[in-house]
Amino acid sequence: MITINALKIRTKLGSILDSVAEKGDTYIVERMGKPMAVIVPYQNFDFKDQELKKRKERIQKTIDSINYWRKKNVKKYWTTDSAIIIRRMRDQRSQHLLDVVEGRQ
């Protein structure tokens, strides 16, 4: 691994990319002495790991959204049948669309 300053990358980006692509070199990019990024050959990058992280983030965001909805609506829907809840939601959505189309909102 080669450590390089962020300023040098600006002036030598072409040669750095050639070195990474042809020789398989790996660069650690530093800014003010702190490691900020890594430049690796395209073949060595782990795309599956990145996709897995994105998927986990989307799942966690969905779970948080569901939990928020539950906390917000627990009293409103606690004893109501799920079919009735869905019917109400559809009616509310239909009413909203009618309001938008007719210019009431």
Oligomeric grouping of the chains: single chain
**Number of structural domains:** 2
What would the principal axes of the Cα set say about the shape?
elongated
Low-confidence stretches: none
Strand content range: 5-15%
Helix content: 55-70%
How are the strands ordered across the major sheet? 1-2-3
State the secondary-structure class: alpha+beta
Radius of gyration: 26 Å
Mean pLDDT over all positions: 88
Please give the largest β-sheet: 3 strands, mixed
Helix-strand sequence: EHEEHH
| Total strands | 3
So how many helices? Answer: 3
Measured between the Cα atoms of the first and last residue, the distance is 60 Å
Description of the molecule:
It is a single chain. The chain has two domains: 2-44, YefM-like fold; 47-101, no CATH class. A hairpin with a 2-residue loop joins β2 (27-31) and β3 (34-39). Strands 1-2-3 form a three-stranded mixed β-sheet, covered by helices on one side. The model has no long low-confidence stretch (mean pLDDT 88). Helix content is 66%, strand content 14%. The protein is built from three helices and three strands, in the order βαββαα. The protein is of the alpha+beta class and 105 residues long.
